[in-house]
Amino acid sequence: MRRITIAAMGAVVALGLAACSGSGAGSTDDSTGAAADPADLTVGVAMPTQTSERWIADGDAVEKGLKDAGYKVDLQFAGDDIPTQQQQIDQMITKGADLLIIASIDGTALATQLQAAADANIPVIAYDRLIRDSENVDFYVTFDNYKVGVQQATSLLVGLGVLNADGSKGDAAGPFNVELFAGSLDDNNAHFFYQGAMDTLQEYIDAGTLVVKSGQTDIEQVATLRWLQETAQKRMEDLLTSTYSDGSKVQGVLSPYDGLSRGIITALQNAGYGPTLAQGLPVVTGQDAEIASVKLINDDVQFSTIFKDTRKLAEQAVVSAQSFLAGEEPEANDTETYDNGVKVVPSFLLKSDIVYKDNIQSLLIDSGYWTEDQVASGQA
Ligand code: BGC
């Protein structure tokens, strides 16, 4: 509403209420009320980290899309450090950003920055991860995160043979020993992924087809702070010692992100499992179609991942930014799901796909996301 009012108030803008560059004047030319030249507008893009290749790809794609549309871009990565990200956003605001696109590290830690943005009439788009506890989140572009969790759990069931890839009932009845992992509790997505996964797995746990032998099923018990690979590896090592030193074997692991999956696989291989699925490595799931994991899938080591086309997400962020900067509201396709604790944030959700070895070609290579050589080498 704030933005609509501003867009409709050309006269007030002309009086100079939003006259200084970078204070929401983005939507209109200061003197005429006409749409501003993109070349006069700067978009601040705050990404969490460069340790995972998806965020580098996201940052690059958003920057390119905005530049192609004529805007100036201030792209920053925060090394997964919350104060650094806060500082970067503060600086974007001080330097006169006209719009912010933010993939948060801790979704609850940016309320002060968002208030400053709102005070300067700067629209904020939450990117991939919802920013919580603030009314100053204007839009959210993401994937259907609950569905991602359903897909992760589905691929685990397919890997165990409980389901077939087409969703029909498979031959295997279990019982199968499985362990569960979740992402960082301060990332809103982690909760959606885990909820989607558990809603899918629960009936099989109840029926005894799946046995979580450690008994650890609460998200607090299975979470991985900051999505760190080494933390997941350590927890898997601890689980093998605490729960599987009686000669029993773990047969499946729900993992919500490829980095964690690789840590889990390393722990399992170091303990004598595998090294491949055919040689007894458990079914391990993933997310993001990172090249190192796509290679592992191709080599029969990791079982699956979830492909979220970051090119499409970046494109959607750019389209939404253009709407705001033209003084319009972006188009949402979901106005119910993402309550950030203060309000329901209008969202645009994209679809994801399960990657198995046999569709790497059609999903990832044919679409130009990775080349055949990259899949073979595991290097981007
Ligand atoms: C993203 C995932 C990613 C994870 C770790 C989540 O917020 O949605 O794609 O795997 O963060 O970076």
Write structural notes for this entry.
The protein is α/β, with parallel strands linked by helices and 380 residues long. It has a six-stranded parallel beta sheet, sandwiched between helices. It has two domains: 6-137 and 310-350, Rossmann fold (3-Layer(aba) Sandwich); 145-308 and 355-377, Rossmann fold (3-Layer(aba) Sandwich), CATH 3.40.50.2300. Mean pLDDT is 92; it is low at 1-27. The protein has 14 helices and twelve strands. Helix 3 runs parallel beside helix 12 (310-325). The protein binds beta-D-glucopyranose (BGC). Beta-D-glucopyranose binds at residues 52, 54, 128-129, 183, 187, 189, 227, 257, 287-288, 308.
Descriptive key words:
380 residues, alpha/beta, Rossmann fold, six-stranded parallel sheet, four-stranded parallel sheet, 14 helices, 12 strands, 13% strand, elongated, disordered N terminus, binds beta-D-glucopyranose
